Amino acid sequence: MAIILGIESSCDETSIAIIKDGELLSNVVATQIEMHQKYGGVMPELASRLHCENALPVLNEALEKAKITLDQVDAFAFTRGPGLIGALHIGMQVAKTLAILYKKPLIPVHHLAAHIYANEFVKPLKFPLLSIVVSGGNTEFVYMKEDMNFEIIGETKDDAIGECFDKVARTLGLPYPGGIPIDKLSKEGKHTYKLPVPLHDDSLNFSYSGLKTAVINLVNNEQARGNEIRVADLCKSFQDTAVGMVMDRLERALKRYDIKQVVLAGGVSANSYLREQMHNRLDGTNVDLIVPPIWCTTDNAAMIVRLAEHLWKMGVTCDSTVSCDPNWRIDKYKTF
Ligand code: KG4
């Protein structure tokens, strides 16, 4: 029997959740998206300040909803990385303060591993599995031979896919976070713009900076010629190309690895075209697919406590001298 309280503050969501023996008692998320929208992306300094403002109200609400008091909590989990360093620090300091005050252990949680384990809210993970981690800061194929064993078998060499969606959206004058309007407009558009597919090698790696630059150059050139941009068509052409790269790597991974299940993780896993393509490819095959519910694709502490329960059972805790790591690699989970 354990009650775990978890804190997520790696980017622009302040979130606290409480779990008791697998049952999620509360998950409160305070999003900062509106505050960052006018800058066209997340302002790290502003994110940290807003985490400071939001932390205690979110904590109180999470406790109230769970009908739990702080002295009942057995361990305090927090996102140790990856993420924005200033933002991570706020959540970590809240967790450390509570752990010291209530003399309870701290559990360090890897943000991307938590996105993967969030899929357990849908159904159990089946190993060996391939996790497709697609977010604003990361694009990775993570192979898991077994529980809590992470191997990066492919990753982006430059920009993350979500970052690319955001920058393309900004170029087209669409609001942040750019993946959402691009996804929506793509439904009205046709794939009429020819865009380059970068990285012609045999690996499982990705490259998105060339695609981003190609869209920016195309828009600049068309504008210089006085031509109107067909925004929905460009969104569709871009989205097909960006998602196409993921599907191409998936095909290779399926040929090279023993894979029983594929799970999507991260903000870009909300993309409707990516979801559709994954179902088209895997439904009816002997490879199982988990697509996370939309609420789980954005940052939240429910996924932090979910993974923290595994870590608690494994005895993974840390003391209050721990530091956060903005570049923590998932394959270095066991060394911090
Ligand atoms: O990085 P991430 O997992 O979460 C945060 O740190 O908040 O997810 C944010 C990213 C952004 O780049 C956003 O544009 C992208 O996820 N995103 C999407 C969609 N919804 C969010 N990308 C494509 N299609 C979507 N529907």
Question: Which class do the helix and strand fractions yield?
Answer: alpha/beta
Outline the low-pLDDT stretches. Answer: none
**What's the rounded overall pLDDT mean?**
95
Widest β-sheet, arrangement of strands: 3-2-1-4-5
Per DSSP E runs of 2 or more residues, the count of β-strands stands at 10
Q: Give the proportion of residues in helices.
A: 40-55%
Structure explained in plain terms:
It is a single chain. This protein is α/β, with parallel strands linked by helices and 336 residues long. The chain folds into two domains: 3-116 and 299-335, 2-Layer Sandwich (Nucleotidyltransferase, domain 5), CATH 3.30.420; 124-291, Nucleotidyltransferase, domain 5, CATH 3.30.420. 42% of the residues lie in helices and 18% in strands. The chain has eleven helices and ten strands. It has helices at residues 33-37, 44-66, 85-102, 111-117, 161-171, 179-186, 209-224, 231-256, 272-282, 294-297, 302-314, and strands at 3-8, 13-20, 23-31, 75-81, 106-110, 129-134, 139-144, 151-155, 261-265, 288-290. Strands 3-2-1-4-5 form a five-stranded mixed beta sheet, with helices on both faces. It has a five-stranded mixed beta sheet with strand order 8-7-6-9-10. The model has no long low-confidence stretch (mean pLDDT 95). The protein binds 5'-O-[(R)-(carboxyoxy)(hydroxy)phosphoryl]adenosine. Residues 11-13, 135-137, 162, 165-166, 177-180, 183, 266-268, 270-271, 298-299 line the site of 5'-O-[(R)-(carboxyoxy)(hydroxy)phosphoryl]adenosine (KG4).
